[in-house]
């Protein structure tokens, strides 16, 4: 098997002319330079596209659509584009990450694994083209964080196979480390985009989806931390008193590490890192980042972790609430239709209404859709407790009746009830109320709000 570079610490039969695999900032700087070249080319294409689009727009007749808008419409609405952006990108990024991790296991780069990754990147580029077409502001898209990372991934992968051989400590070297280790960022993006199109009412999967999201976020953080720590300290922070100080045997402190001055001591950067870790109550563990970029990244993770933790706690509370009848939105069954019942009837009234609604006399031989009823009402309404008790006790009843806890004057609750898709909306008052004027006023408000929402 032909090798691009071999493990510098492993005895091998590969000819000595094969460069050694290392992780060094000299190679990474070259990869970043390649990415800048790619960025300049992409910005040039975006600039030409923008100028051509604006010129065409001036010559268009009324009702005509320019090529830029046509491309953007296709990229945003096409099912093919959505598949490329989401599941295809997710699988491709997962494969690239897997092959990169196998490379890190041996610290060798074989031609087979390299060209396989290169082929996968050609598929990933198709996703970039689709997203470029979907963006409204092409030049700003070029400078988006994820696009910049994509350029770094493409350029660094090119550098692994075709970058220059550098002599480091008298040995010819190539790098085995590139930005492909960060493909988990693209996996997370594709997953979050797919998650938006999955119904949130599926109780059993919500916890699994939350765990997958947390796992991908951990992978993102771990990959970036591994990349920075493997490369070692930035040349900018080497022999820099702000970043590192060392205590010597004679009691003095210096910024230059040597045999006599090898023990790390407090520096401004370490004090800053120590303070944030302490305030974040994270702890230091057995391993701690040693380089300035890694410590800055750890500080950012601590702050983001505190924020995201509070957000996910809110999601868990919402997940717990979904277990209660009335909280999940209405999810229609296949081949079904529904009517919406709102107002403030008593349970006896509501029972009579539902009995009449589902009576066999109203069934038609030509009607293949099952009729369902969605009851939207306040939890404090008279019918709520007996209705929930009935739904818990009668599985046949709950298969056709859905209770939504909410207020018909709120658009959000009408949306949860799928009011726009309802075949009819019935508004029923409480016939036994002591305050008929207030009851009528509330029902008028419900009717007007529903009519305004449905349009």
From TrEMBL:
Pfam families: Ion_trans_2, Slo-like_RCK. The keyword Transmembrane applies. Residues 253-318 form the Potassium channel domain. Gene3D superfamilies: 1.10.287.70, NAD(P)-binding Rossmann-like Domain. It is a multi-pass membrane protein. Its main location: membrane. The chain crosses the membrane at residues 32-52, 82-100, 112-133, 212-228, 266-284, 296-313. Keywords: Ion channel, Ion transport, Membrane, Potassium, Potassium channel, Potassium transport, Transmembrane, Transmembrane helix, Transport. It is found in: Membrane. GO terms for molecular function: potassium channel activity. InterPro entries: K_chnl_dom, K_chnl_Slo-like, RCK_N. GO terms for cellular component: membrane. Residues 336-453 form the RCK N-terminal domain. SUPFAM superfamilies: Voltage-gated potassium channels. It catalyses: K(+)(in) = K(+)(out). PANTHER family: CALCIUM-ACTIVATED POTASSIUM CHANNEL ALPHA CHAIN (PTHR10027), SLOWPOKE 2, ISOFORM D (PTHR10027:SF10). This is Uncharacterized protein. It comes from Peronospora effusa.
